[in-house]
Amino acid sequence: MAFRIGKSVMLNFGNDLEPIFIFIGLAFLLLIGPILRWYVLAMTNPDFSLDRIYFLELMPFVMIFVASLFISTEWYENSRMAIVVFGSGLIFIYLHLAFYIGKCLHMVKTKKNNYKITVQTKSQKNIFNWLYHLLIGCILIWITYVLNILDNTVPYIIGPIVYSIVIYYLSYKAFQMKVIEIDGDAFAVNESLSLFNRISQLMVEEKLYLDQELSLVKLSEIVDKTKQHTSSVINQYAEKNFNDYINYYRIQDAKRMFLDVVNNKFTISSIAFDVGFSSLSSFNAAFKKFEGITPSKFRQSNNRK
């Protein structure tokens, strides 16, 4: 990308730039597509490694780069064939990049669809969001340069400007989303998801949250894991700490009881204790945190309906 934008800047501000630099700069566009695909593969597949066959994708770049070394200024300025070669080469190069961007979008979408049926970790969500940012940035760059060559729809200098802005933005997002600290290992099959599914099963089927004495230590003993491991898995997959995770189930149970007119004879305190809370104050605080209103207001508003 640096070579590509360098060529654009030299062409815009330099005088009589040698055609060899123009063609070499365009040739580097043929590198972006394959490397982009390899990067997407590395970010979405654990233990990814570049096999030798992958390097065959660099052949278009190698061929045009080598051919660029033999282009003279005289031939470029005086030969009609130069126009044909330049035009056809330009079309091929931009279609080549468009093909790879489309392929990468399809890869990311397919991978994401495969994870719709499972709980995504924070790292996996970050990777998907980052890759979409990256690919949208590449699309903006591609569109800008295509508009530039179509009868100068936009000034030529807009290309490198958009290029630079996109690269700076992507660099900022990379650090903000901490994607430099994660890779395809985020998609490795491990025991963490199985453990979280087991904990969820205990909550849904056995209603373990109804136990007022339930603690992180007690839950860890039930699933036969360390306190730290259990807490980490809940934070990773539920995106909540232990207390919020348990209280969420309790609040959902309380809401169901409030909505059932049969339970109107029971006080709020009684329902709070029934769903696992040890005090009315903690129930009120948790209910307002998840629902935005107090239990009494929730009950009143639904009894009017």
TrEMBL record:
Keywords: DNA-binding, Membrane, Transcription, Transcription regulation, Transmembrane, Transmembrane helix. The keyword DNA-binding applies. It holds the Pfam family HTH_18. SMART domains: HTH_ARAC (SM00342). Residues 200-301 form the HTH araC/xylS-type domain. The chain crosses the membrane at residues 20-41, 53-71, 83-106, 127-147, 153-170. InterPro entries: Homeodomain-like_sf, HTH_AraC, Tscrpt_reg_AraC-type_HTH. The keyword Phosphoprotein does not apply. This is HTH araC/xylS-type domain-containing protein. It comes from Aquimarina litoralis.
